[in-house]
Amino acid sequence: MRERGVQIESWGPLAEGRNGLFTDPTLGEIGAAHGKSVAQVVLRWLVQREVVVIPKSVRPERMAENIDVFDFQLTDDEMARIAAMDTGASVFFDHRDPAMVSRLGTSRIHD
Ligand SMILES: NC(=O)c1ccc[n+]([C@@H]2O[C@H](COP(=O)([O-])OP(=O)(O)OC[C@H]3O[C@@H](n4cnc5c(N)ncnc54)[C@H](OP(=O)(O)O)[C@@H]3O)[C@@H](O)[C@H]2O)c1
Q1: pLDDT at site 105
Q2: 59 in ligand 1 pocket by Cβ < 6 Å?
Q3: Which residues pair with 52 in a beta bridge?
């Protein structure tokens, strides 16, 4: 995508809040080292890799938290630790699972 000048954007930068993302011990440990929350570590990880993020929250305090990711930097070691968490599959969606796709309903198809 970079070669062709295409900007990547995260579909659900906080994994739609699913699958225990906010209680992940590795992300929590990395956040504690910087005085940051798991959400901030996740968003920083994406921003630092030049992935556009548009996190969703209905809570003003979380909106403020989510934009407060530009005053710290994840180290190469921390970036590598997070990269090692990659399972090669989405933690919240599988486009190849007909049952999951059908649950989207028509309104979500047009998102
Ligand atoms: N995923 C899709 O299907 C899809 C499709 C088209 C467009 N989008 C857009 O993509 C953006 C991403 O939204 P998304 O809902 O898909 O997923 P997301 O941003 O990955 O996750 C949102 C979830 O994380 C929670 N959250 C947000 N900030 C948090 C924080 N600091 N600490 C703890 N929890 C936090 C939110 O809860 P609270 O709201 O309660 O804080 C919500 O449950 C949105 O702008 C959305 O409209 C998504």
Answers
A1: 62
A2: yes
A3: 9
Domain boundaries, the chain: 15-109
CA 14/CA 83 separation, integer angstroms: 15
Q: What does the pLDDT look like over 8-22, one tens digit per residue?
A: 999 899 998 888 899
Instruction: Report which DSSP code applies to 55.
Output: -
CA 22 to centroid of ligand 1, rounded, Å: 12
Ligand 1 atom with the smallest distance to the CA of 59 is 41
**Tens of pLDDT, residues 24-79:** 999 999 999 999 999 999 999 999 999 999 999 999 999 999 999 999 999 999 99
Counting from 1 in the atom list of ligand 1, the atom nearest the Cα of 56 is 19
Helix (H) or strand (E) holding 22: none
Contact of 70 with 63, CB cutoff 8 Å: no
* Whether the CB of 18 sits within 6 Å of ligand 1: no
